[in-house]
Sequence to fold (353 residues):
Amino acid sequence: MEPRKSRKKTKSKLIIRISLLITAVIFILSISIGGFFLYKAKETWNEVYEERISKEDPIAQLRKEKNGKKEAAKEKQREKQQETEDGEGSSSGETGEDAVPASTEVLERQAFTIALLGVDTRDNNSFKGRSDTIIVAVLNPSTKKVTLLSIPRDSYVYIPQVDKYDKIAHAHAYGRAPGAVETLERFLDIPIDYYISINFHAFRSIVDELGGITIDVEKDMIGLKKGTQKLSADQALNYVRFRYDSEGDFGRNRRQQQMVKAIIDQTIEVRNPMKISSMLNILGKNIRTDINLDNLLYLASEFNSVQGQNIDSILLTGKSFYYNNRSYVGIANEDLVRVRNKLKELLYVKTAN
Fold:
């Protein structure tokens, strides 16, 4: 039988596993409800914002492009109106092949990435420690789609900060969020644009504020029966921490993503001002991010209607192995190539130049 102290420690570590993505949804809600909550979101964001670790800022670029398109449309409308007033027809110009320059295809960013890191720490003022939950989210403002990739915490990868191979969860312990981001970029061969780190203290209070989480339990397990039901914080935790079957961590990763979708669907229905304010207070103490407020407001405007049905999932597969008496997960090379290609397909689009 597992010792009580060990069970308690494991449970505390795993509370964070279903907290991810709550942050963006809560702030979207705060903006949609009114001015006070916009002020409250700004106040909270001042507590959680950390200086960016990357020079590139794709959300800012998307904001700029969006504003540019609006201005271009206005200018075109003004020109059309002027032509009508002047009685001019369409302007003449050269036709034929020589008038059309040869085009080349280039890759253009159409989406951006956020690393969602559940940090294993027992101190709610600290964000040191391992990231026991690692999800890479790809967000596409044009399609309003979100794609989540769960990465097993024991994945055996190269960690640049210490110049050695280790569990990917340890990258955060070695270099905090910047270290985890650098490791993810090398492992997945894509840019990681932003991060959100959250510690486990947020989970229980958030779920209590929501009044529990309704979810379709996929099979009988740990005191739960198969079927749709409302879970308390403890029951939800037990559901997403369960790994004692043939699927192990991979089944747990799938249930984490299922829980994320359920939390998003139920959070966007919250309209109680006091409840939203309370959630913001909880998150302000338990998250850190390098997404600035301007970019947050852009996210809120672009993804304010996101629901579970708009969220797709990608899962890595691999096998457990032992090395120097420690357990790791080895990701199959062909599966890693598949996932890398899928991520690049989501991030980039070929355009004529």
About this structure: Residues 94 and 100 are 9 Å apart (CA to CA).
